[in-house]
Design goal:
Radius of gyration: 17 Å
Structural class: alpha/beta
Strand content: 15-25%
Shape: globular
Distance between the termini: 31 Å
Mean pLDDT: 95
Helix content: 40-55%
Largest sheet: 7 strands, parallel
Number of domains: 1
Number of strands: 9
CATH architecture: Alpha-Beta Barrel
CATH topology: TIM Barrel
């Protein structure tokens, strides 16, 4: 093993065990199988050596929210763990001019919230495929807005179905995989996740393969699992407080 000290490895092993225990307890309370809930580490601002350590601990997914950081980190992790096949997820808002880069490295974009972004990702994924820079469709989650605030990102719930239809129509370059949501500031997490679960179930009726519901983070993953989350995005509880960086 290279790239991280034993102390940090032990720390990450301990926090991973605690997060997995929380997921298992939440699933037991909800009568669900823990295997139905994927843990997605949100590794933004943390170094590639931490991602490599999480790979050693059995986690083969990582999430980032900025294209430039993700692309560079992906290359560094690939050099540190050459045999590992890490799936990288984009969870932050995507500017359309960044789509060509995102389409080269992302296995999944969880933050698709507009028809214009769908079209940009479709073009970018098509170009990346033709250039041999990606294999297979780009996975997409449509991001739902629970408060309708455009400044926070997300598609208003009444428009979510039409957006999902747009993604599905962009096959085979894009693959509709489900719904993502974030609890708005000041909103009760349980109420927010209940709304999100209803929206996800409604979408599945017309798109049965779109089974993923990405909901819940470090502070509210239990409520999300109670309301059907299949993917919890965990940063602080797993990796610790984020290091201060300048942008």
């Amino acid at each position: 093993m290279t790239g991280v000290g034993q102390g940090r490895r032990d720390e990450l092993a301990a926090t991973l065990a605690r997060v997995r225990s929380r997921i298992a307890a939440a699933c037991a309370a909800a009568g669900r199988d823990p295997a139905q809930v994927r843990l997605l580490p949100v590794t933004k601002t943390f170094p590639a050596r931490d991602v490599a350590t999480l790979v050693d601990l059995g986690l083969l997914d990582a999430a980032e929210d900025r294209d430039a950081e993700a692309a560079a980190k992906m290359a560094e992790v690939a050099a540190l763990r050459r045999a590992a096949e890490v799936r990288w997820h984009m969870v932050g808002r995507v500017q359309r001019n960044k789509c060509p880069s995102v389409a080269r490295w992302a296995a999944q974009v969880q933050s698709v919230d507009s028809a214009r972004l769908v079209e940009a990702l479709h073009r970018a994924a098509s170009s990346a495929m033709q250039a041999g820079q990606r294999q297979g469709a780009l996975g997409v989650l449509v991001q739902a807005s629970l408060d309708g605030d455009p400044a926070r990102g997300g598609c208003p719930l009444p428009e979510l179905q039409a957006l999902a239809d747009r993604v599905a129509a962009a096959s085979p370059q894009l693959r509709l995989e489900g719904v993502m949501g974030v609890v708005p500031l000041g909103m009760d997490p349980g109420a927010a996740f209940a709304q999100l679960d209803v929206a996800a179930q409604r979408l599945r009726r017309s798109h049965p393969a779109a089974v993923e519901l990405s909901a819940g983070m470090s502070g509210d993953l239990e409520q999300a699992i109670e309301h059907g989350s299949t993917c919890v995005r965990v940063g602080t509880a797993l990796l610790g407080d984020r290091p201060l960086i300048s942008r």
